[in-house]
Write a structure and sequence with these properties.
The chain is of the alpha+beta class. A 4-stranded mixed sheet has the order 2-1-3-4.
Length: 103
């Protein structure tokens, strides 16, 4: 878990992905519609990607990507992010994390 904390520290929005994950592009587009610029970490292109994926699975990510952190807090995957958006709870999270400044 320390590995994930070090990768998300002091970053408003971080998304763990694999270069072939189409759902990451969907979530990224949603975030950008709010004006946020998420940091995308493609674990399949990293030497320690396997360790990161194991840590994400231990958090409950199934499938392991996309895994979204907002304000260093683990949010979940595509379903959780879209659910927050439908409930009008995503923008307040982005504001609180300072990923966006107006809504």
């Amino acid at each position: 878990m320390d590995l994930l904390a070090s990768l998300t520290e002091n970053k408003a929005v971080v998304m763990f992905s694999k270069s072939t994950c189409i759902m990451t592009h969907t979530v990224q587009a949603l975030m950008r519609n709010f004006g946020a610029e998420p940091i995308i970490i493609e674990i399949d292109k990293m030497a320690n990607g396997y360790q990161i994926e194991r840590a994400l699975i231990q958090l409950g990510c199934r499938p392991s990507v996309p895994a979204v952190f907002i304000g260093q807090q683990f949010i979940g995957g595509t379903d959780e992010v879209i659910s927050l958006n439908v409930q009008n709870k995503l923008a307040p999270l982005l504001l609180k994390a300072r990923a966006i400044y107006l809504w």
